[in-house]
Amino acid sequence: xxxxxxxxxxxxxxxxxxxxxxxxxxxxxxxxxxxxxxxxxxxxxxxxxxxxxxxxxxxxxxxxxxxxxxxxxxxxxxxxxxxxxxxxxxxxxxxxxxxxxxxxxxxxxxxxxxxxxxxxxxxxxxxxxxxxxxxxxxxxxxxxxxxxxxxxxxxxxxxxxxxxxxxxxxxxxxxxxxxxxxxxxxxxxxxxxxxxxxxxxxxxxxxxxxxxxxxxxxxxxxxxxxxxxxxxxxxxxxxxxxxxxxxxxxxxxxxxxxxxxxxxxxxxxxxxxxxxxxxxxxxxxxxxxxxxxxxxxxxxxxxxxxxxxxxxxxxxx
Amino acid sequence: xxxxxxxxxxxxxxxxxxxxxxxxxxxxxxxxxxxxxxxxxxxxxxxxxxxxxxxxxxxxxxxxxxxxxxxxxxxxxxxxxxxxxxxxxxxxxxxxxxxxxxxxxxxxxxxxxxxxxxxxxxxxxxxxxxxxxxxxxxxxxxxxxxxxxxxxxxxxxxxxxxxxxxxxxxxxxxxxxxxxxxxxxxxxxxxxxxxxxxxxxxxxxxxxxxxxxxxxxxxxxxxxxxxxxxxxxxxxxxxxxxxxxxxxxxxxxxxxxxxxxxxxxxxxxxxxxxxxxxxxxxxxxxxxxxxxxxxxxxxxxxxxxxxxxxxxxxxxx
Lengths: 317, 317
Prior knowledge:
The structure is a homodimer. The first copy, chain A, is of the alpha/beta class. Chain A has helices at residues 11-21, 43-46, 82-90, 100-103, 110-122, 139-144, 167-172, 179-187, 196-207, 280-294, and strands at residues 2-7, 26-32, 69-72, 94-97, 125-128, 150-161, 213-222, 228-239, 242-252, 259-267, 270-274, 301-303. Chain A has 2 domains: 2-130 and 283-308, NAD(P)-binding Rossmann-like Domain (Rossmann fold, 3-Layer(aba) Sandwich); 139-277, Dihydrodipicolinate Reductase, domain 2, CATH 3.30.360. Helix content of chain A is 28%, strand content 27%. Strand 11 (270-274) of chain A pairs antiparallel with strand 11 of chain B, so a sheet runs across the interface.
C-alpha cells in the first residue's frame, strides 16, 4: 500500500484526496490544511467522498504518521512551495504537486535550485503534475512523437467549454468581464492560463530542441452582451528559426468544437484527437494519483513529466 | 552520437537503417546480413537512402567496430533470436528488435529466460519494439490511462487499409486466398497478425491486472469475387471475470473506416482517435530508432515497452 499525506484541501486538493481514497493500493494517512474552517473536520466527508475516512484534517504535520508520498495542492506559485515541500521532504516523503509553476520550473531559478537541492539531500523526488500543463500539451505529444521518423513541429489545440469545469476557472479566464476589465486583470496576471510556456519547455526538453524565442498572445473572446466569454491564448516557440512548437488554448463559454487535437508534423504526419477535451479536474487528479503510485522509481531531485515519458522522439545534435 | 549496427536487412531492416541514417545523433557503423544477394553491397544504396553510406553489408560481425546499439530485424520468432542477440550482447551492445514475439515474451519461457540472463550478464538491455504490438494497442493506451481516476476497461480498434502497407502484409493477412485456403493457412499459422496477445500482456503488466482467460477469434473478410479481402481478429481478456481488455484488428483491402481508436472505459471516459491508422512500417522504424536513442537509461535485462511508459494508470491490490 502507498501511504499518502494530502497537503492543501481546496477544490483540487479535495478532488485529489477523493481520487486517492477510491484507488486500490493507496491508504491516506494524513490530511493537512491550516484553514480554520477545515481543521478538525473528517477528511473524507470534507472531500465529498460520501463516507468519513476516520481521519481529521490537521493544521500542520504534528502527529501525522510515517508515509510515502505527499500530495501538495496549496498554491500555483513556485515561491510558495518551499515550506510545504520542505516539510514533506524533511519527513522522508516524495512529493507530487498540482502547482502549475512546478510542472516545468525554470531550472536555473533560485526556487527550483533550492527545491532540487532539498530533494536530493532527502533522497526523494519532487514532481509537478496535472492535465495542462503536464499532459495534454506536453507529456502526451512527447509519447506520440515516438512514432515519428522525422519531427518538424508539434502543434496542440485545446478547446475547453468552461461551463464543464470548476467555477474558479471561469474567473481565471475572465468570463463576464468587460474588455477593459479583462485588460486590467491581464496586466495584473489575474486572468489567463499559466502553463503554455511550461508545456513548451517540457516539449523542448524532451525532444532535445533549444527554444530561441517564445511568444505568447492572450486575448479575450467576445460575448453577445459585449462582455468576455473566455480567453484565447497562443504560444509559438521558434527552434532553428522556425515555429516548431505551437500551442493554442481556448477556455470559454459555448465553444464551437471542444476537444484536444495533437498534430505532429513530419514523417509520418500524425493527428490524434479527443472530443470533447480531456476533462480537466478529473484528469489532473488522476495524473497526481497515478504519478504518486510510480514515483518511487524516479531518481532523487526535482523531476518533470519528461522523466516519466522516456518513450519519445529524440534528436541529438 | 549513438553508434548503431543493423542486423538483418530485409524490408523492415532496410527501413530501420534508412530511418537511422536520417536521424541527427545516430551514426551507423555496421550492417550485417548473410544473404548472398546483400553481402558486399553499400548499406545506404541497398536501403534506398538515395546515397551510399560508404559502409559494406557484412555477412557476420567480423570487422564490425565498437558500437552502442544493435537493431535486429531478422525474424518474427523468439527461438531464432538467441544467436543474433547473443552476438550483439557479447560485444557489449544494447539490442532493439522488431521481432513481434520479443515485444511481450512469455516471461517464464526458456527462450525469454535465456535472453534475460544473457542481457543481465552483459549489463545491457534487450527490448522488442514496433507499432503493433508495441505501441498503438499497448504502450499508447497505457500512457492515456494516466488521466483516468478509475479504469474499467481498455478497448482498442485498429483498422488498416492493407493497400497502404508493404506487400508482405497482404500475404500475411490472406488477401486473395479462397476461404478454404485461408482456413488451411490459418491452421498452419501462416496467416493472421501475431501480436494481439502480446499487446494484452503488456497492458495487463502495466496496469497491474491479472488475465484469467484470453480468447482470440480470427476470421477472413469476404471480397466480391468470393476470395478473401483480409483478416479480422478480436481478442478479449478477462480480468476479475469481466472483459477488461478488448483488442480488435482489421487488416484488409478497401476498409470502410481506417483508423486507430482507443477507448478507456471508466472515469472520465476517454476516446482518442487517429484517421487513417498510424502508418505501420514508418511508425515501427521510428519507434525502433527512438527507443534505441533512449535505451542506455534502462536497467540491464530483457525489457518491454512497459518500462518506457512509467506514466500510466496503476492499481495495486
